Amino acid sequence: MNKKLFIETLGCAMNERDSAHIIAELREKESYCLTDNPREADLILINTCSVREKPEKKLFSEIGQYAKLKKSNAKIGVCGCTASHLGDTILKRSKAVDFVLGARNVSKIAQIIHKERVAWVDIDYDDSAYVFSQNSNSTLKGMINISIGCDKQCTYCIVPHTRGNEISIPAQLILDEARKMVENGTKEILLLGQNVNNYGRRFSSEHRAINFTQLLNEISQINGLERIRFTSPHPLHMDDDFIAEFARNPKICKAIHMPLQSGSNVILQKMKRGYTKEWFLNRVEKMRSLIPDLSIGTDIIVGFPTESEEDFLDTLDVLEKVRFDTLYSFIYSPRPHTQAQKWLEMDKNIELVEEEVAKSRLAHLKNRHKEILVEENAKQLGKIHKILFESFDETNALFEGRSDTNKLVRVQSKSDLIGKFYDVKIHQVKGAQLLGEIVKH
Ligand code: 5AD
Ligand code: SF4
Predict the structure, then answer these.
(1) Which atom of ligand 2 lies nearest, measured to the CA of 15?
(2) Can you list the pairs that 277-285 forms with residues at least 24 positions away whose Cβ atoms lie under 8 Å?
């Protein structure tokens, strides 16, 4: 009988990819199968995120809950960014945890499960250890890491500490992996990295020099691959060459994540983001001039230390000008090992924005964005998108898929649509939901 694995994944796409990698390793090497019920699991893994303080705080109460409901001989492991960041402190604080495996050590999962009470969190790297194990059940969409870690020193961010220096994975490994996926039926590939468009700056050893734009171009030449997405690029590195390739190449999906963080030049400088509001808007304008239907998503932090009302108004101004298709917004959360937290501790003139003020700024931003979305979605009525169908929503009996611009579109159909592309006309817009009908088979 197969052993059962329950895994909870928090955080970003990188963590999802790491979980997929862990699942594949345990399936191949240790004959585990997945369960969604922690009570029947032989191994419970929590793949953690530490980008904000709240989920990190919740970790120990979660471990406590799993410890209560698990089978008596089941093991509990903590992986991911909080594992990297807290290391063996997790073992000291919780007797229920059997092992701790850092974000950069996921490929050692099949070894660590046989150890007792250890923490492996080093951040060295070599290409051979970072195997591309085949992963998920769905082969339609695949994820490939193109770089790990981050070299930027954004002053709010814990990631360089948890995931280490930025290292690009050799292009040959990425291309081989992409080809293998496509041979197995993958139609869409998501390239992952903390800072994807900084690709090619540093490899772990001698490798062919290649930048992100060239990598995109080479991947797009794989026969049978239909779509390429990537996350996250940094607005600073969106040079003209990149924009030209992005606009020209039909396989590159016309949806981009551009993490703004703040619209205020004063705050952007304090965050050490390396660009100005004007540069950001210029990049958006340039891309939209070439791709009028481009979908743009963003991340925004409100309440960064010293953020004034005027600074916040600059952020709102960018929201009005860009009218982002997706927005992830957060209240600044002080993180250990970051420059901003050091300032808060050392410099009396630098203070946290009052909680009530930060909360009201966040609410304002989110509400305004919701209004914008309703206005923008209404414009979708009658538009035709090419949809790749991915899943079936049992409750509403609707097939679901995404457009090139990453819009979720739902369609009623008697025949199975999954895995296929169809042109779909939007005939109904319900809030954020788009309903359509197939116009061409
Ligand atoms: N506080 C709040 N939000 C943060 N993010 C990163 N660090 C912090 C922090 N200390 C947000 C950024 C990033 C996203 C993944 O999380 O917006 O783009
Ligand atoms: Fe992803 Fe950052 Fe969270 Fe780690 S800390 S899981 S890199 S968002």
Answers:
(1) 6
(2) 277/314, 277/317, 277/318, 279/235, 279/236, 280/235, 280/318, 281/318, 281/321, 281/322, 283/235, 283/238, 283/243, 283/258, 284/258, 284/321, 284/322
Please report which residue ranges of 222-336 form alpha helices under DSSP H.
Answer: 240-248, 265-270, 277-290, 309-322
Looking at ligand 1, which atom is closest to the CA of residue 300? 17
Atom of ligand 1 nearest to the CA of 335: 10
Tell me if 339 CB under 6 Å of ligand 1: no
Is a pLDDT exceeding 70 seen at residue 219? yes
SS3 84: helix
pLDDT above 70 coverage of the chain, percent: 96
Which numbered atom of ligand 1 lies nearest the CA of 12?
15
> How far does the centroid of ligand 1 lie from the alpha carbon of residue 237, in Å?
19
Tell me which residue of 413, 415, 407 sits closest to 433, measured CA to CA.
407
pLDDT, position 122 = 86
Residue 127's pLDDT is 60
From 8, 22, 52, 162, mutation site for ligand 2 pocket: most ligand atoms within 8 A of C-beta: 162
Distances (CA, A) of 213 to 149, 246, 414: 19, 8, 41
Pairwise CA distance, residues 416 & 411, whole Å: 11
Which ligand is the nearest neighbour of the Cα of 150? 2
Tokens of 50: 């530490």
Cα–Cα distance measured from residue 430 to residue 441, given in angstroms and rounded to the nearest whole number: 25
Report the nearest-CA residue for atom 2 of ligand 1.
332
pLDDT of 129 over the 70 cut: no
d(CA 422, CA 411) in angstroms, rounded, equals 11
DSSP state of 415: S
Does ligand 1 come within 6 angstroms of the Cβ of 324? no
- DSSP-derived secondary structure for 2-33: -EEEEEEE-SSHHHHHHHHHHHHHHHHHH-EE
Chain-centroid distance of CA 185 in Å reads 23
